Amino acid sequence: MPPVSTDSRAAVAAELAEARAAMFALLEPLSDDELARQWSALQSPLVWDLAHIGHFEDAWIGQRVGGLQPLLEEGEELYDAFRHARHGRGELPLLDPDAARDYVSRVRDRTLAVLGGESLGGGDGDPLLENGFVFGLVLQHERQHVETMLQTISISGLRHPGGRPRPVPGAGDRLVEAGPFLLGSDDAWAYDNERPVHERELPAFRIDATPVTNGAWLEFLADGGYGRRELWSDEGWAWREADGAEAPLGWGDGTVRRFGRDEPLDPDEPLQHVSCHEAEAFARWAGARLPTEEEWEKAAKAGLLRGVGEVWEWTASPFAGYPGFRAFPYPEYSEVFFGDDYRVLRGGSWATHPSVARLSFRNWDFPVRRQIFAGLRLARDGAPIEARLGPRDRRGALEADVREGLASTPKRIPPKWHYDEEGSRLFGEITRLPEYYLTRREREILEAHAGDIAAASGADTLVELGAGTSEKTRLLLDALRAAGQLRRIVVLDVDEVTLAASVARLSAEYPEAEVQGVVGDLERHLGELPREGRRLVCFLGSSIGNFDVEHRPRFLRALRDSMEPGESFLLGVDLVKDPGRLVAAYDDAAGVTARFSLNLLSVLNDELGADFDLARWEHVPRWDADRELMDIRLRSREAQRVRIPALGLEVPFAAGEELHTEISAKFRREGIEAELREAGFEPREWWTDEAGDFGLSLSSVV
Ligand code: AVJ
Q1: Least confident of 164-173, 248-257, 434-443
Q2: Please, what are the domains in the chain?
Q3: How far is the CA of 87 from the centre of ligand 1 (A)?
């Protein structure tokens, strides 16, 4: 911006007027009593903010630039931000609302006189006047107080139009490659703490495209996040215990209280009103972390972040000066706050004026604060993930599978397409169902024999196929670690989001190991798995049951061919048992498996633009005694036609017609060992859980 010219004087005056109108409009619905009251120890009475805006403006413009006497003698004593703490301001002999309104208007008259008058021309060499900085300072100050006042109103419980963040479409995270970028700003009106612009270098990281939503937070609550000590920092846990926080500020049972009303909680809305401690606990629960402010700014400047300006975002960074920082125009703006007590927030909220919500802007507050319109965005280390299955391959494979599957009789869709982010999440929920014994039984076996497996395999590298969240694998990793063998972890999954979270978590938990993620397809990318080390390849959870008798030999042979003599293969298989228990495991009372099945149709809707109406389909799991497998289908409740624009298809379904979506084969020891031998493995060990529900087979490659 050029130095203030007559032209930009008019622009500055217009902006000042606009900010003032917004401030008065905000206070308009409130009575004088409401303005004068101290609603919270955390926030000043509104009438204090009002007169403080005037005092700040008078101090910098009327007095400092214009050389005039203070317009209000007790201004400094009552309205300097450092004189009295917020909680005591209600007891001061403050101006009443009418007097405060009158005061700020008289200050403004003097400001406009200074802006239009000689004194500005005399500013040669005065850095305060360079590019009209001091006007920018006063303007931003007022804009920021408008947001502070909105926080006060939101805490007060008073009825007010208020505002809210808007849902941000999109999902997933972005990889930001290692490399340099410019941090900070030298714009004319940037604050001292944003200066100087300088080059920074960051390692690769991943950051979510969108802020965390209320819906995600509900899952954290349902998973007992506020009670799980291990998710919280020491300081955060101490705060949680002292505060008694069990949900974000203002949350009720499915409702959120704001601006004097209880409203239904919108799961798609960006989450707000959490402390930095809560944000950190959530991030850990999600297998992620808060971004540093440098990461945030790099990603934001690269245009990778959506929803910036809906909620402030807590970062992992304490507030500090950039290298070469110089306090300007006074240390009390930023410098006195530098240190570990404060955390930086980035972005800006729905209540922040866009001129403040700039990408270099740094807000800061105590990590316990919850009245701010602040939420978070997740970041993860940019641990190497190899996309053998890029988004385009994935799309192509999906299209081919759906085209072929819907043209065959009976119609079918391969089960791997269940696992988008939501499908992976639902499967996680299945593993915790009372009816779904598989995961618990397999864990029981691993608990008993992980040490044996580590010893028998002699492996230094663990490769997990179809890794999902790699929860049970930790038992094996711990055993390898205990034996001093662990060097490398490779996880393969079709869903990149699930994989990235898992890689980040494993990297944090097993720092001695090199962790590598491969986005890939079990039927196509086995040959491309990293080959370093002596590997123990694990295929757990009876996932092999998704392959039918024709596909299993092909899969096992491809796997065998990708392995070296001396390496080991650990396979988990669910065993044939009482059909009643089998059916129950795939038809749980809570309906989670039905949701998992139906999610396949959502995947087709999301990815191919299909118009499956989930309400017209029914989850049908059956035990097929001849083939010894669970046969899972979706039954069309009525005759219907489904359009799949991406494939140019319109597919008719008859009433009662069944779409084959998944099989889950069940095994017997003799059968699976014969299949392993046939593929060139040598079965060495066989373990089951106490009840004999589940089997674990360890083979070697000879
Ligand atoms: C992940 C394939 C092992 O077959 O039990 C669970 C999938 N489907 N409930 C299984 C599944 C419905 C699961 N596998």
Answers
A1: 164-173
A2: 6-156 (1.20.120.450), 173-381 (3.90.1580.10), 438-578+667-701 (3.40.50.150)
A3: 57
